[in-house]
User: Fold these one by one.
Assistant:
Number 1:
Amino acid sequence: MSAAAEIVFDHVTKRYAGRDSAAVDDLSLEIPAGSFCVLVGPSGGGKTTALKMVNRLIPFDSGEIRIDGRNIEQLPLTELRRGIGYVIQQIGLFPHMTVGENIATVPRLLGWNKQRQRERSIELLELVGLDATDAKRYPSQLSGGQRQRVGLARALAADPPLLLMDEPFGALDPITRHRLQTELRRLHRNVGKTIIFVTHDVDEAIQMGDRIAILREGGVLAQYDTPDAILAHPADDFVAQFIGGDRALRRLALKTVGELPLRVPGSAFAVPDTWVVPDTTVRNAVSLLLELKTDELAVKDGDRIVGVFHLEDAREVL
């Protein structure tokens, strides 16, 4: 099994009986292997329908969906779904099973021995930021954020090349949601899976995805590109209104000061007293400069000064 899968929607259409417009209308989309693709749009845009068609929870009327070149309708359903991790907002953990047993659900169906199941459960608990001792607890003993982490671990248990995530953080409080967003981005860098992630929140889409598909009402693809390209060049008025008027500030949040060509400190100028770490976003650095009514910040990695960020540097990002 490959580490990540390429997904292709080829002129896919889905209509529900009794509705005038399609839920998904002639959707063509190529998601490269290893990408984090976010489907975003207003209600009625067909985001969840598109997602659920990939693992055939919802059948489609015409077109073709391919995973690594294989038509999903020609794959045995059990084989298809065991190769896809699925994470939803409601999580759906089995209350009578321990956390470890929940995580091992698919490996158990695949015939893994108990020792291998236990080892995989513990490995994944640590990967998603929980303790190995949590394997013996029950879902009712966990917080909402912890349960969502267990749901993610369960989806990764059989090492699938593809993860489908349907608004997984929508029911969480803002602090827990931010922590899990950060954790998922780290996890994606580490495990390299293809992720298709559904959200109605454009800020979450910009923060999480390396590619964004914006769907308008009626399941029509409005624009598909990188977050920076969409913010810099909205395809039409609908996209511009949907992503909002503060596009420049949102673009500044896509880069960190450590990614910029910073000025190297030297004898020609003094190093500013105020500093930030390299993974500070340019947006947050600019906000701090405006708050302090100054033009420069030092950038420190531990005790080492790695450069100086100037307000003018923000213009280079744009």
Note: The longest helix spans residues 174-191.
Number 2:
Amino acid sequence: MIARYAVVFFLIMAIVVTPTVVYFLCRYFLPHRWGKKVGITISLLVILFALYGMFVGYQQLDVRHIEFVSKDLPESFDGYRIVQFTDAHVGTMTGSREWLLERAVDSILAQRADMIVFTGDLQNVYPEEIEAHLPQLSRLKAKDGMFSVLGNHDYAIYQPYDSIVKEINCAKTQAFERKAGWTLLMNEHRVIRRDSDSIVIAGMENWGTVERMPRRGDVRKTLAGVDSASFVVMLQHDPTAWRKLILPQSKVQLTLSGHTHGGQAQIFGQSPAAFGYKEWGGWTYEGSRGLFVSTGLGALIPFRFGLPGEIVVITLRKQK
């Protein structure tokens, strides 16, 4: 599988190629009397960094609690709780790592939220990865439902097949999410009611600024028939769609995204994801409108350093 090749490539680069290059650069550019020692030291640190990220960092999990305050939130929804998780990449949670998904599901259910949402990338490459985990994924239930959108990996774009087979496999992915009891939103929305009040949960298909990514997201189609005064929670896998489409084409108050994984590493608050994404993790606001980007639960490559997998509990608050 392509996913296995990615892991092998990472191991070769992290444990063999990079330490070797670092060692010889130190030997070449640093004074002879201590270049060798510095090279060996840094090379060993690189190897330890990789091993820690794979065998310790990847197994860490945070439950993150945040709030979103809005004057547009109906009174009946003050205190409403949404659990978001994203980028599960369940194909990596196999064999000795199966317990990671079980723990994540247990943690999500323990929050007793009103709604659970998943913002894309359930699989690594193939839909069969999801099928093996349906017993766990089917456990995810909440009072107002379990809602999801597709991520770039869920569109079969990394499969070595022609477009027809890819479409068939993409349909399988969608079918597995529905079989798990999830409400998959594909440029559509649902209305959630409390007494005489309501909010809208909307889900766009993937849209990203990188051209090779699926660009099927349609804001207007997603919100067709939604009153402009409604409070809307928008699910969109790729956060770049927020500035490009969601902000200019709608009045959506809260957007939840994933996709970036936060670069799967963070040192002193800095992440390599910042080089590719303006919004790569946490909150961003434009006036009263907010985007929250979760750095994800899993990953194609089982590596995280300083940035544990996360489950996010969002409490909606009415601005007084």
Note: The CA atoms of residues 129 and 211 lie 26 Å apart.
Number 3:
Amino acid sequence: MSNTFSVCCVNADDAQAQVEALAEILIDCVAHGASVSFMHPLAKDKAIAFWRDVVDAVARGERSLLLAQQADGRLLGTVQLILHQPENQPHRADVAKMLVRSDARRRGVGQRLLQAVDAVALQAAKTVLVLDTVTGGAGDHLYTQCGWQRVGDVPNYALMPDGAFCSTTYFYKHL
């Protein structure tokens, strides 16, 4: 597998063309224990429906979708920036669904996606970013390394894909 990849923000048409590959990444991440709103096993039609909703939100300008992709077109990871916020929070965005294919982890994909999401946020005049992740999970270390500040933990906030309870940690970052 190549160690070179690029990260870009895609429009709705380009996102639509990647729905199948995005569904595969989501299914892979859930199968490998990622608590990202879905239970294991995740059916492909359910994953595709999720990504079609994301494409629609991108088309409406409510979200930005970033992809990490090898030169041969293989998707390695993705992250979303939720731009649509209440009117008293025009400067804020949420980072969501940071997903890196299990066989592409520990290659800098997550870090590069986060750097790119910062740039996209600034272009959209978003200066406060917020995200949540499983307490003690792989994201904890990554987000801290990338300059995010831990806010706190909520015990038993969600379920892991196998049904076990997990705590969630909230982070923020000022740009």
Note: The chain has a mean pLDDT of 97.
